[in-house]
């Protein structure tokens, strides 16, 4: 929302024109509408349910997330609320006829937090200011800690009688004066959060920490003002300043690391510019407008370094675009005049003018963002478990601290309170609440940067346990087009001559077989392209082409030529071939029909398919192939890819039955399909992949959507999911082991407050650092010695150039 400002009233967000800046209309069930329905919602927003996303300020833990969820769900008209403690974001599904954004945002404010539009430039600036304030608090705490330690040092090294009572009291007063600004400024957010919890009669992770700070400062202050009282034996300013410094160090580093790891998702979501130069048709000049104001038909100017704000066609200028978000490939793509550009890709080279063909929710980028937002707010099973135990655990912490203080009070009241402080601090379950979501979101961000969208975070858990992976054939193991495998020519005809003649006819057709012939001819016989002159061309749907062809060189007489199926060309079809055969025939001078050539066309197997299958098998994942195509064609593709278990001629229900049979046998099954006709089987698998170019993202049933064209992303995602689950388990074991070790030490009084603060900060930091390892990139596939042999075998079956194809003599028909 470019129009909002820090001082803008919340009622500004009640303007329906602003809703698209941080949400989209959706169905009552909560799923985003397709583009046409979104356009309808744009005109009548009050008639639909809206799905909005906001960034939250002031929250720190899973208990905060649960509090905000409860506050939002209590508002009439709010149908659903999901809050992520790891990303500090919330998804709110609401009905405009019953509630407005300012009202449910006020409910968040009343709960002690602040909500801002997730796609708002002000929200990004607010997070930067929050990071700067955290840095200042840390610096003040560090300065105070060093000064207090300087004043405390004499008490540690002095021998009995070295320090007079007046000097010791002076050092206590100096420490109190230095500690006071740290308590007021650096500890301010902890106290504010704790007071809010007390006022609202709830508990969060800041409450025990704030209690520990307050108790330590009050006990030390009492010892300073009344040295002869029950707390005058010792002061703890050094412990207080140290554990506050360690705590703020951990939180600041955690914030920075989280922004760099899990924050990768938000970086993708916010890559569109807030404004763009739009041409005024009346004056012909360009003026900056908010991106959300663009409509179809506008002409915009995009400068180098800017992201394209909408889908469109370049009308002026030439450039290169970075489309890594959409394809997973970082290589820049040339975009001359007349080419199409997509929202979210970057203009790398020079200014261009673009005619807008799709904006807002109509773009593919909007679909990607919708999926990523939905995934970032999902809570994996292990995270839900941590959320459920967060509040009871905090109550248990308070009780344990009270019992520890009561146990030690008779012997030494001051020591008893410091034992309670150590228990309060050391048991704070920050590491436990961060263990799962930070790792999951880091993995999701890494996959998004490489062209794989995670639609369901639960899918990462399921994928890590997969032992069987089932591929669809068409559009998955094979590409959408076809490839020329072999040319069989009649006596007297060279392969390139026959190919150029066939391409002269095929050039006028959009059939996949025709495009394959044209592509092969342009590669192997480019000099022959202008030789043939085609006239009176006709295309019979599903059969082939016929035309009158003359030879511009004068070597061949004008004749009638047919290209297509054997039946259309008037010849006998060859039996037992797994390839699709296209026949070229011509009418001879005496009216006899002559067969000139046969072209064997096969589906274009992805070049990386054998390596992908071998990599999966090497990792212990069994690979199978299910397809609705002919058995011979399916077996040929399976043999080339190295897949042993194959089923062909499967209906969609047949695929689902085969999948369920595997599941009934105890297998954890993943399905990889193109998403077009594989909806039931993708939904029925434990976890599934779909190639995003083949299906509208909002309608995909898959858990993972591969935006690019590389099949290698599938095994890489499997390996990353396994690594992610290992990291989650390591984090959970560390969090549990840390508490199991430190809580008894704190209860028996062997862990001072400063050491408890250090342990708490290090535990949270270690969890985030461990998760940050997942941001390094996708795992590399293992070296496969068998890959070279597989490629050689495939190359022998499907040579790349028709000039090298064997020729076979054909008899006249």
Explain what the structure shows.
- The protein is α+β, with helices and mostly antiparallel strands.
- The protein is 47% helix and 19% strand.
- It has 26 helices and 27 strands.
- It has a 7-stranded mixed β-sheet with strand order 15-27-26-25-16-23-24, sandwiched between helices. Strands 7-6-8-14-9-12 form a 6-stranded antiparallel β-sheet, with no helix packed on it.
- A hairpin with a 6-residue loop joins strand 6 and strand 7.
- Helix 7 runs antiparallel to helix 13.
- The longest helix has 37 residues, at 121-157.
- It is elongated, with a radius of gyration of 34 Å.
- It starts with 22 loop residues before the first strand and ends in a 16-residue tail after the last helix.
- The model is unreliable at 1-8, 28-47 and 784-813 (pLDDT under 50).
In short:
With 813 residues, the chain is of the alpha+beta class. The protein has 26 helices and 27 strands. The chain is elongated.
């Amino acid at each position: 929302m470019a129009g909002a400002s820090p001082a803008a009233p919340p009622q500004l967000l009640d303007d329906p024109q602003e809703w698209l800046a941080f949400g989209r209309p959706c169905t009552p069930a909560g799923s985003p509408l397709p583009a046409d329905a979104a356009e309808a919602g744009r005109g009548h927003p009050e008639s639909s349910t809206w799905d909005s996303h906001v960034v939250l300020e002031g929250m720190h833990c899973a208990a905060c997330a649960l509090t905000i969820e409860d506050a939002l769900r209590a508002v009439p008209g709010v149908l659903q609320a999901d809050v992520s403690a790891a990303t500090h974001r919330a998804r709110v599904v609401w009905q405009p006829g019953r509630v407005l954004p300012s009202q449910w945002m006020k409910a968040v404010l009343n709960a002690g937090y602040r909500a801002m539009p997730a796609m708002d430039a002000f929200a990004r600036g607010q997070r930067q200011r929050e990071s700067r304030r955290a840095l200042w608090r840390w610096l003040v705490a560090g300065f105070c800690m060093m000064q207090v330690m300087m004043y405390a040092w004499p008490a540690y090294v002095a021998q009995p009688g070295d320090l007079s009572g007046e000097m010791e009291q002076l050092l206590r007063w100096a420490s109190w004066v230095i500690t006071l600004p740290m308590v007021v400024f650096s500890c301010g957010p902890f106290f504010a959060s704790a007071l809010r919890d007390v006022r609202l009669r709830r508990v969060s992770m800041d409450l025990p920490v704030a209690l520990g700070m307050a108790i330590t400062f009050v006990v030390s202050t009492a010892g300073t003002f009344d040295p002869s009282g029950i707390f005058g034996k010792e002061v703890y300013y050094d412990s207080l300043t140290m554990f506050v410094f360690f705590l703020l160090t951990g939180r600041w580093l955690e914030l920075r690391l989280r922004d760099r790891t899990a924050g990768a998702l938000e970086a993708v979501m916010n890559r569109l510019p807030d404004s763009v130069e739009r041409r005024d048709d009346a004056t012909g000049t360009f003026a900056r407008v908010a991106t959300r104001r663009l409509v179809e038909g506008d002409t915009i100017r995009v400068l180098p370094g800017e992201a394209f704000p909408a889908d469109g066609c370049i009308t002026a200028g030439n450039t290169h675009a970075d489309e890594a978000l959409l394809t997973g490939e970082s290589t820049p793509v040339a975009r001359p005049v007349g080419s199409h550009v997509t929202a979210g890709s970057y203009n790398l080279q020079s200014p261009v003018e673009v005619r807008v063909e799709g904006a807002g929710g109509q773009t593919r980028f909007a679909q990607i963002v919708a999926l990523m937002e939905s995934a970032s707010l999902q809570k994996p099973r292990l995270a839900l478990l941590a959320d459920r135990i967060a509040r009871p655990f905090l109550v248990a912490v308070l009780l344990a601290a009270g019992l520890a203080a009561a146990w030690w009070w008779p012997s030494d009241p001051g020591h008893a309170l410091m034992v309670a402080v150590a228990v309060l601090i050391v048991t704070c379950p920050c590491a436990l609440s961060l263990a799962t979501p930070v790792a999951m979101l880091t993995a999701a961000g890494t996959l998004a940067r490489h062209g794989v969208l995670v639609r369901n975070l639960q899918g990462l858990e399921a994928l890590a346990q997969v032992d069987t992976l089932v591929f669809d054939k068409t559009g998955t193991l094979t590409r959408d087009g076809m490839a020329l495998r072999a040319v069989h020519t009649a006596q007297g005809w060279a392969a390139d001559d026959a190919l150029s003649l066939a391409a002269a006819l095929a050039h006028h057709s959009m059939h996949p077989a025709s495009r394959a012939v044209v592509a092969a001819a342009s590669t192997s016989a480019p000099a022959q392209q202008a030789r043939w002159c085609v006239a009176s061309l006709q295309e019979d749907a599903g059969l082939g082409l016929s035309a009158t062809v003359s030879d511009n060189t004068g070597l061949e007489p004008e004749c009638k030529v047919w290209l297509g199926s054997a039946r259309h060309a008037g010849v006998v079809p060859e039996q037992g071939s797994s390839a699709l055969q296209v026949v070229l025939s011509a009418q001879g001078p005496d009216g006899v029909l002559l067969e000139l050539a046969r072209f064997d066309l096969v589906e274009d197997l992805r070049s990386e398919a054998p390596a992908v299958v071998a990599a999966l098998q090497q990792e212990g994942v069994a690979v199978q192939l299910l397809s609705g195509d002919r058995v011979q064609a399916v077996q040929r593709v399976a043999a080339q890819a190295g897949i042993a278990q194959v089923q062909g001629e499967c209906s969609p229900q047949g695929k689902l039955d085969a999948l369920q049979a595997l599941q009934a046998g105890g297998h954890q099954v993943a399905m990889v399909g193109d998403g077009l006709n594989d909806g039931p089987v993708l939904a029925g698998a434990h976890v599934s992949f779909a190639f995003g170019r083949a299906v509208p993202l909002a309608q995909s049933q898959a858990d993972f959507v591969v935006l690019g064209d590389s099949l290698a992303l599938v095994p890489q995602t499997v390996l990353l999911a396994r690594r992610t689950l290992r990291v989650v388990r390591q984090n959970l074991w560390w969090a549990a082991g840390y508490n199991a070790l430190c809580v008894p030490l704190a209860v028996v009084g062997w862990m001072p407050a400063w050491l408890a603060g250090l342990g708490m900060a290090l535990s949270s930091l270690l969890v985030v650092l461990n998760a940050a390892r997942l941001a390094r990139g996708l795992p590399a596939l293992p070296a496969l010695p068998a890959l070279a042999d597989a490629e050689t075998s495939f190359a022998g079956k499907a040579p790349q150039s028709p000039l090298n194809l064997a020729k076979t003599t054909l008899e006249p028909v």
